[in-house]
Amino acid sequence: MGVPAAKLKPNKQLLAIKRSKRKLSLTPLLFILPAIVPLIIFWIYPMGKSLYISFTDWDYVSPEYEFVGFSNYTDLLTDPGFYSVLVNTVVFSMGVVIPCVGGGLLLALLVSGNGKGMGIYRTLIFSPWVTPTVAVSIVWSWIYEPNVGLANWILTMLNLPALGWTSSSTWAMPAVIIVSIWKGVGWAMIFYLNALKKVPVSLYEAASLDGASKWRQFLHITIPFISPTTLFLIVITSIDALQAYDQIQVLTQGGPAGSTRTMLYFYYQTAFEQFNMGKATATAILLVVITAAFSLLQFIFSKRWVHYQ
Amino acid sequence: MKKAPIIWVKHLVLIFFSFSMVFPFLWMVISALKTKDEIWQFPPTLWPNKPMWHHFADAWAMAPFDQYIFNSIFTASAIVLIQVINSALIAYAFTQLRFKGRNLLFSIILITYMLPVAATYVPSYVILADFNLLDTYSGLILSNAASVFGIFLFRQAFLQVPKELIEAARVDGARHWTIIWKIIFPTTKATFITFSLISFVQNYNNYLWPTLITRSESKYLITTGLRQFFIQEGAYGMQWPLIMAASAFTVLPLLILFVFVQKWIISGISDQGLKG
């Protein structure tokens, strides 16, 4: 009884495959188009178009424009002002990414496991991530108020000198960085929590039997095991940091004296305040190149220290 | 006996961190309740002498916040609905259908995920202007209609649906629609919920792009409206209590939502794919 059924099954399967092969031409399109059409109109085409505009002197208003070759790029790269924008971008990104990833790991180590209250800690630490950056940056701009703000009150209680925060060209950048870390560290923590869960317990047990200290276990078991997550987080948080805008607009508007003007803020000002579309898109393309180069570098270097399973 | 103190230290450290993360929200509410005189006192009072609860109503009445919040919730919901449907469909194509250029297409989408979205702003703005979609709900919704993040998340989830289940249904002659609705959706429901929540939060919080493409107050999202209110009140001698009250009713709906759905958001980020 069972034999004919087993014989029949492959035939039926074959038929099904044949049937689906015949319909192959159009069906996938129906599934792909609803996502691909907006993706092309608002992502892929604009990327190409940005590259095109970056070789022109288009000012948005006039219908005519001229090709200017690479002059937008050479203008930018020979402008000392643009270098301070580049430096600000790098300082901001490093200042956010390193503490976010490092702090995320530290917090994840602390709240991992099913101990009492761990769920509550996780929720509280992650909560800033869900709130609008604009709204919380407004709250932080009140915290940073130089005369009566909370930040300076805490500093005076610790017997430290009060700071100018967002009105000082030295402290504006740290102020913006602190808000960004506060908002992003919980995100990194959640990713690490999951990675930590996947380290096989047997490895720790074996290491303990061999007399390895907790610290050595961490260095030689935990760190290599979670390295793919570390790489992923560094790349993703860098991409986010390179695009930070909301907190800068609310807290400092790129100031004082351009000390917090990052590439994206510079891009926004050039495009939508000065309507110098050629220069703005050239900035955007440089940002794309930097992001791409950075991600690529991460992946190349990662071959040395990331251990995929 | 030896272990107990370590646990206490751990809890103390965690309480300190958790408190620091939440304190700005508490400070926001406390500051909203202070009078104009009290808020400029130094050192600041930790709780207002006489809480001005009416500041919330005052701030609410000073700008069309109800309109802003409606705009944000309406456009974010519409975007989430569209993104869920089109991301799930294309993820189904990537995981269950075979067609030419499938891997190439996926690689292209993978690369877009790495590119800064800001690079698209100028041309996207021009496209919206050409279609007369600036300052409209349709413009806000359509320009956000695709989510690369969503495509990844759904693809990752659909890859984990047992192949035998889908094969069996296919052999029984089930159509694509039936497979999606009866097999894939029930087994990956968590991803649908998680993605919807994350995307809703991101769209509600979105600021730069919606600000660029809206001009009239009646179309402002809450983020744009709040920032506008901040500039206005700042111009007349910093009405911090009112600004804090307005920030509070922008932030609190999300925090309350988060308390109820945090399980989905947190597990969604960590459990379902998107690992390096």
* Major sheet attributes of chain B: none
Distance between the termini of chain B: 40 Å
Class of chain A, according to the CATH hierarchy? Mainly Alpha
Q: Considering residues with a beta carbon less than 8 A from a beta carbon on another chain, report the largest interface and each chain's count.
A: A-B, 96 and 93 residues
Overall spatial form of chain B = globular
Strand proportion of chain A, as a percent range, falls in: under 5%
- Run of helices and strands of chain A: HHHHHHHHHHHHH
Structural domains of chain B: how many: 2
**What is the CATH homology-level superfamily of chain A?**
MetI-like
Number of domains of chain A: 1
- CATH topology name of the largest domain in chain B, in short, is MetI-like fold
Question: Measured on Cα atoms, how large is the radius of gyration of chain A?
Answer: 26 Å
Label the CATH architecture of the largest domain in chain B. Answer: Orthogonal Bundle
Strand content of chain B: under 5%
Number of strands of chain B: 0
Please count the beta strands of chain A (DSSP E, at least 2 residues each). Answer: 0
Largest sheet of chain A: none
Alpha-carbon distance between the two ends of chain A? 45 Å
Query: What string gives the helices and strands of chain B in order?
Result: HHHHHHHHHHHHH
Helical element count of chain A?
Answer: 13
CATH class of the largest domain in chain B: Mainly Alpha
